[in-house]
């Protein structure tokens, strides 16, 4: 038996060299202790390396994060970056700073796919809210008021013809 089609075509159901961060390659994080990243990838990807210095030095994913998930398992690549591990532990990252991590996926055929992930550090803003005890009552349908009551002491200062009064936060 032979092939009756003079011009046979071969097609794949999945791309062989797919490596794409989802939903985006830009991340805003409020903490540097755990930055979880996930990419869709082909089962034909053998290794993924990462670089924090623009591609000069590459680290193997297994060396950087022993709990990483490689593409061949479930079609996903998962890794957690942390400032408790080098080289991130040696980087100075302040509020609002961005940095880029390069990822280099190598397929069984030897093809390399390089992707950048931009990470911006924006820590959560601390908003202090004071509730004056007995100042007012909050009511309403479905409303819940939660908070911490702060003590404010009333003081009066006088002298030299001036009188000042107000609250002193403790």
What can you tell me about this protein's structure?
With 170 residues, this protein is mainly β. 5% of the residues lie in helices and 38% in strands. The protein contains two helices and ten strands, in the order βββββααβββββ. The strands form three sheets. It has a five-stranded mixed beta sheet with strand order 2-8-7-4-5. A three-stranded antiparallel beta sheet has the order 1-3-6. The protein has a two-stranded antiparallel ribbon with strand order 9-10. The longest helix is centred in the middle third of the chain and has 4 residues, at 61-64. The relative contact order is 0.18.
Enumerate the strands of the largest sheet in spatial order, edge to edge or round the barrel: 2-8-7-4-5
Helix content percent band: under 10%
Cα end-to-end separation: 92 Å
Tell me the Rg in angstroms.
28 Å
Question: What can be said about the biggest beta sheet?
Answer: 5 strands, mixed
- SSE order: EEEEEHHEEEEE
Give the tally of β-strands: 10
Which word captures the global form?
A: elongated
Contiguous helical run count: 2
Low-confidence residue ranges: none
Mean pLDDT: 79
Oligomer: single chain
Strand-residue fraction?
A: 35-45%
Structural class from helices and strands? mainly beta
Features:
170 residues, mainly beta, 5-stranded mixed β-sheet, 3-stranded antiparallel β-sheet, 2 helices, 38% strand, elongated
């Amino acid at each position: 038996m032979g092939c009756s089609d003079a011009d046979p075509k071969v097609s794949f159901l999945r791309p062989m060299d797919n490596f794409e961060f989802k939903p985006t390659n830009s991340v805003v994080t409020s903490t540097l202790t755990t930055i979880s990243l996930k990419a869709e990838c082909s089962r034909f990807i053998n290794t993924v390396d990462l670089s924090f210095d623009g591609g000069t030095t590459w680290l193997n994913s297994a060396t950087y994060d022993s709990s990483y998930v490689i593409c061949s398992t479930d079609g996903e690549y998962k890794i957690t970056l942390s400032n408790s591990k080098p080289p991130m532990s040696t980087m100075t990252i302040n509020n609002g700073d961005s940095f880029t991590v390069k990822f280099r996926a190598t397929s069984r055929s030897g093809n390399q796919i390089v992707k950048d992930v931009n990470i911006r550090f924006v820590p959560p803003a601390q908003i202090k809210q004071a509730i004056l005890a007995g100042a007012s009552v909050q009511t309403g349908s479905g409303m819940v008021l939660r908070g911490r009551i702060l003590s404010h002491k009333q003081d009066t200062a006088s002298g030299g013809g001036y009188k000042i009064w107000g609250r002193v936060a403790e």
